[in-house]
UniProtKB/TrEMBL annotation:
Designated name of the protein: tRNA-dihydrouridine(16/17) synthase [NAD(P)(+)]-like
Biased composition (Basic and acidic residues): 350-370
Pfam families to which the protein is assigned, alphabetical: Dus (PF01207)
Organism for this UniProt entry: Callosobruchus maculatus
Entry keywords, A to Z: Cytoplasm, Flavoprotein, FMN, NAD, NADP, Nucleus, Oxidoreductase, tRNA processing
Claim: Zinc is one of the keywords in the record: no
Length: 466
């Protein structure tokens, strides 16, 4: 508890580590709106050790960005230790990501897909705990039973973990099947261990935070999606989205980050406004924008559109439809995005499947053709119909805006071949090239593979001779 109180300053309002979202500019914005502790995005320990540019960007910080916890993912104790030793002078603690449930974590064998390998996790946590000058913390997801979750937490505590963040969802609760986090698991862990416990999940407003602290006994509460849609969550406010958006753009120019991060944050902040069908044109332009000036112009346009309503100069028609779920406040205000329940999602999928089977009986299966009369699949036909329903692009969009030379997607701002990432990756694989802008290093990795293969053959020959 001394670490949580004396080093971290007893934080209660905590912003989660979020890939491509909790970069320095966003962390500073969150702190200005009441966040007391922030994490870096999840960093890949192996890349962090090998790539100086990746390391420099990942450790970008400033005096206002304190206290800060650096989070790593990985499955090798030595690699995680090497990365942590490089980072320990820039943060208050090192966090091990044991909670990521995404497919990339499954492929890389890290995050929540290590939660069944307790001997390995004991080695990782103890190795870092015994060799770092700063504490080691862990972020986990719950198991199906409280008993196993508690046993898991106590194992990590015994290995040297000094603070534990418990997400009240299992690793299978993600995407449309996310559902609600179960705080009873957090409470059980809090009562079983002597280290600080942070609760993660179900935090969409300040009332959720206070209820969570009361029900779980956790020392603090961590939020991710709630923060992205309303960075002022910790202040009991729902500001008009253009206020944090303009402040964030100023911070992004002071502390540069990839434009994809900026675009993603603006889509989250203006999620409900962009769900209004009349704003479909603005949504398309935001998706294609690739300069800070374009982002700023779009935010100012949305401000000019909705500020008269916000100030009461123009009456807002509350019957205006949006594609957002459970919208209570006017759409220009920062507020939570509420997913549909897993039960409703499964029900809708089943209804669509039955409807499809009813319309397309095995004896009367429909056949689809494109404009040239060629047979195509039902999936392809649906895609063509969606494209045909898209509104025409506004005439005031400059026709010369940078787009990929092979498709209509915006090109990467740093791509050497003036392509989008998908096309660039395909070209690099075919032509054996590298693209530093997209961090696609096909040629370099192939050369390394050949070098190590030749070294291995050389060693085999020398060992055979000897």
């Amino acid at each position: 508890m001394e670490f949580w109180r004396d080093v971290l300053g007893a934080p209660r309002n905590i912003v989660a580590p979020m890939v491509d979202a909790s970069e320095l500019a966003w962390r500073i914005l969150s702190r200005r709106y009441g966040a007391q502790l922030c994490y870096t995005p999840m960093l890949h320990s192996a890349i962090f050790c090998k790539d100086p540019k990746y390391r420099k960007e990942a450790l970008a910080s400033c005096e206002e960005d304190k206290p800060l916890i650096v989070q790593f993912c990985g499955n090798d104790p030595k690699t995680l230790l090497e990365a942590s030793l490089l980072a320990q002078d820039y943060c208050s603690a090192i966090d091990i990501n044991l909670g990521c449930p995404q497919a990339i974590a499954k492929r890389g064998h890290y995050g929540a897909f290590l939660q069944d390998e307790w001997p390995l996790l004991q080695e990782i946590v103890s190795t870092l705990s015994n060799n770092l000058r700063i504490p080691v913390t862990c972020k986990i997801r719950r198991f199906e039973t409280i008993e196993k979750t508690v046993k898991y937490a106590k194992m990590l505590e015994a290995a040297g973990c000094k603070m534990l963040t418990v997400h009240g969802r299992t690793r299978d609760q993600k995407g449309p099947l996310t559902g609600l986090a179960d705080w009873s698991y957090v409470k059980a862990v809090r009562e079983a261990v002597s280290i600080p416990v942070i609760s993660n999940g179900n935090i969409q407003c300040m009332q959720d935070l206070e209820r969570c602290l009361e029900e779980t006994g956790a020392v603090g509460v961590m939020t991710a999606e709630g923060n992205l849609h309303n960075p002022a969550l910790f202040t009991y406010q729902n500001p008009p989205a253009w206020e944090p958006a303009l402040e964030y753009l100023d911070l992004s120019e002071k502390y540069p980050c990839p434009l994809s991060y900026v675009r993603g944050h603006l889509f989250k902040l203006f999620h409900h406004v962009l769900s209004v069908p009349e704003n479909n044109d603005i949504r398309i332009r935001l998706g294609a924008a690739n300069t800070m000036e374009q982002f700023r112009l779009i935010v100012k346009e949305l401000k000019a559109l909705y500020e008269p309503h916000h100030n009461g100069l123009v009456r807002w028609d509350q019957t205006v439809e949006t594609d957002s779920q459970n919208l209570i406040l006017p759409p220009w205000l920062c507020q939570p995005y509420i997913r549909d329940t897993p039960e409703n999602y499964v029900k809708k999928v089943e209804e669509r499947r039955k409807d499809s089977e009813g319309k397309m009986g095995s004896e009367n299966k429909r056949h689809y053709e494109d404009a040239d009369g060629n047979p195509i699949s039902r999936k392809k036909m649906k895609k063509l119909r969606r494209i045909s329903r898209r509104p025409e692009k506004p005439s005031h969009i400059p026709s010369e805006r940078p787009i990929c030379e092979k498709c209509v997607n915006p090109l990467g701002s740093k791509c050497e071949y003036k392509l989008c990432k998908k096309c660039c990756k395909e070209r690099c694989y075919v032509d054996n090239l590298n693209c530093e802008g997209h961090r696609i290093l096909v040629k370099k990795r192939r050369e390394m593979a050949k070098f190590y293969a030749s070294q291995e053959n050389k060693n085999k020959i020398e060992n055979g001779i000897s």
